[in-house]
Write a structure and sequence with these properties.
With about 600 residues, this protein is α/β, with parallel strands linked by helices. The protein contains 24 helices and 16 strands.
């Protein structure tokens, strides 16, 4: 075994040219083969790559899909986001656990199968869902869970259980997944007919500066959520000092409730790669990286094949489009289960073979990004827009959508509606019209933009989805009147607590305190001053956290406080005669009683 390990590590490091910036790939390969990155393996990798062992340990301990302790050859990762919970994931979890004879977080006694929870895997439109190794299982119930375990015990091959195959390219020979696109509405921009190479050939007929000019004219803004103008970002990157430049596509859509990039990656990856290539031409880069979230690893062979086809057709490689001196190629970097890597500087760290820690800004990635070189990081949907703008022109792009927010937006709709799925809608669509479109009635609340966005109620359903009103990276979660909205907010706080990288105190500690106080209110033990505490602590976390994640993490509490104040008011108890009505003396004495080993007398 140890000879095997040593030989495997030597080979795998050689495959990545003993390049320490490829540590993520090396660790992922090792995890897949041996079920862990053991202490011994860390030492061997460090030696091969001429880095410190602690660097390998630091990376391994950061990512959820990597582990120092051995896991089973089969790992069942059951999604535990709020939508899966509402669709019955607890029953599915119980069935998996019962059939395996273990608890969540454990490995079967024969060491073969590990069962654990994982945050959103991008399948909220077909929840409950799980990933078993790299195979996705959707629309689970307890019977299916039991059947899966019985079959895995027999043959140990999750891929054999992936039936029936899903729609569109999910049935492609290189995908063979039971995932469904659920593409409910195609718009004029992303999912319209498109011929590969059209946008690129038009871009190459212009100078790089003219390409940036067209993107600026189109007023394209980043589709990932922050909405920064793409043309301006490219201009900064092009003008920054440096001999090398990089284009990175952020396909790490980890915001719970978001899955629209999954549909692009399945149905039109060529359009996205074309946008990246145009980006490379515009900023003067020779290398592009697609950062693909580990949860979408099932798409990897298909995406690699798309890249090979583009190379064969002269759309990647040397002298692209017979344009001398335009050389550009793309590699795919697989993530390993860390939401924070959706933040662009954390994503860059991950591409560099490091923990996904966000970096301090400035300098911004446009000045010093990947390997300290000028780098543009854009989202999957943004790159698709780029290819379409170059093909059809900036005026065409601007005619669609609303005045302040041109074009279309992809929305991932999930929760309490009849038709969950992906919708390409013009910017400026009213929330009420969207609800009609997706078949949602009796709606009490909508979470716009995922947990880091805001929860709105019926009073806001006349508002519109666009950058100037309700901005969203794409996640739309719908909740009907039977749902406990504060429980949902509390679950969102669980998510942020779990995903905080831990670097700064407001985010690492503040969110724990925020959730504790919220849960106290939910349990009926809150008082009016708790609401002031929530507001002040939430604001303080927002203003003092280091990166976008911490700055938006109190939003589940702050937006419910703002838009659903009545729900809080009903739960908190006013003090009477100077006494705290919410004070529960019995539960407060429990710890002291257990230390003293005797009950207290209460008069
Ligand atoms: Fe890490 Fe949170 Fe601080 Fe961001 S805000 S750096 S995620 S601890």
């Amino acid at each position: 075994m140890s000879e095997n390990l040593s030989a495997f590590i030597k080979n795998i490091c050689k495959k990545y040219k003993n390049d320490h910036t490829r540590l993520m790939d090396i660790a992922n390969d090792l995890q897949n083969e041996f079920g862990c990155v053991s202490g011994k393996a860390m030492g061997l990798i460090a030696k091969e790559l001429s880095i410190h062992r602690v660097d390998v340990e630091s990376l391994t301990s950061f990512y959820a899909f990597l582990s120092k302790q051995p896991k089973g050859k089969i790992v069942i990762r059951l999604c535990n986001d709020i939508i899966d919970e509402l669709k019955g994931s607890a029953e599915v979890a119980a069935a998996f656990a019962d059939e395996l004879g273990i608890n969540i977080g454990e490995t079967s006694p024969d060491g073969k199968i590990t069962l654990e929870y994982t945050p959103c895997i991008g399948m909220c439109d077909q929840a409950p869902a799980a990933i078993i190794n790299e195979v996705v299982f959707t629309n689970l119930n307890s019977d299916k869970a039991r059947e899966i375990v019985r079959s895995l015990k027999k043959h140990g091959d999750p891929a054999r259980l992936s039936t029936p195959l899903g729609d569109g390219n999910n049935a492609n020979e290189l995908v063979r997944s039971m995932v469904n696109n659920n593409l409910r509405r195609k718009g004029e921009v992303i999912f319209a007919d498109y011929k590969s190479g059209d946008g690129l050939s038009k871009a190459l007929s212009l100078s790089p500066v003219e390409v940036i000019r067209d993107i600026k004219t189109s007023r394209l803004r980043g589709r990932g959520g922050a909405g920064f103008p793409t043309g301006m970002k490219w201009e900064f990157t092009r003008q920054a000092e440096g001999t090398k430049r990089y284009v990175i596509c952020n396909a790490d859509e980890g915001e719970p409730g978001t899955f629209k990039d999954r549909v692009i990656l399945t149905e039109c990856p060529d359009l996205m790669f074309e946008g990246m290539t145009i980006g490379g031409y515009a900023i003067g880069a020779e290398t592009g990286i697609l950062y693909l979230r580990g949860e979408y690893a099932y798409l990897l062979p298909y995406l690699e094949n798309t890249l090979s086809n583009r190379r064969r057709n002269g759309l990647l490689g040397k002298n692209i489009g017979s344009k001398r001196e335009f050389n550009f190629d793309i590699r795919i970097q697989i993530g390993a289960g860390a939401y924070i890597c959706g933040e662009e500087t954390a994503l860059i760290s991950s591409c560099e073979g490091l923990r996904g820690d966000p970096k301090t800004r400035p300098p911004f990635p446009a000045q010093k990004g990947y390997l300290a070189a000028p780098t543009t990081v854009n989202n999957v949907e943004t790159f698709c827009c780029v290819a379409r703008i170059l093909d059809k022109g900036a005026p065409w792009f601007m005619e669609i959508g609303s005045k302040g927010s041109p074009s279309t937006k992809l929305l991932s709709v999930s929760g309490d509606c009849h038709m969950p799925g992906t919708y390409e809608v013009p910017f400026g669509i009213k929330v009420s019209d969207l609800l009609k479109m997706v078949g949602a009635d009796d709606v009490a609340a909508i979470q716009i933009g995922g947990p880091s966005g805001q929860m709105i109620g019926p009073a806001d359903f006349k508002r519109t989805i666009c950058y100037d009103d309700l901005a969203t990276g794409g996640s739309i979660m719908i909740f009907n009147s039977s749902r406990n909205l504060l429980h949902i907010a509390s679950r969102f706080m669980d998510f942020f607590i779990e995903e905080s990288c831990g670097f700064c105190t407001p985010c690492r500690v503040g969110n724990v305190l925020l959730k504790e106080r919220l849960d106290r209110i939910i349990a009926g033990n809150g008082e009016p001053s708790d609401l002031i505490y929530l507001q002040e602590l939430g604001e303080s976390i927002k203003t003092s956290s280091r990166c976008g994640m911490g700055q938006t993490s109190p939003n589940p509490v702050l937006s419910t406080l703002k838009n659903f104040r009545g729900v809080y008011d009903k739960l908190v108890k006013k003090n009477k005669d100077g006494l705290m009505c919410s004070f529960d003396i019995k539960s407060s004495l429990k710890e002291a009683e257990s230390i003293a080993g005797r009950p207290s007398e209460i008069f």
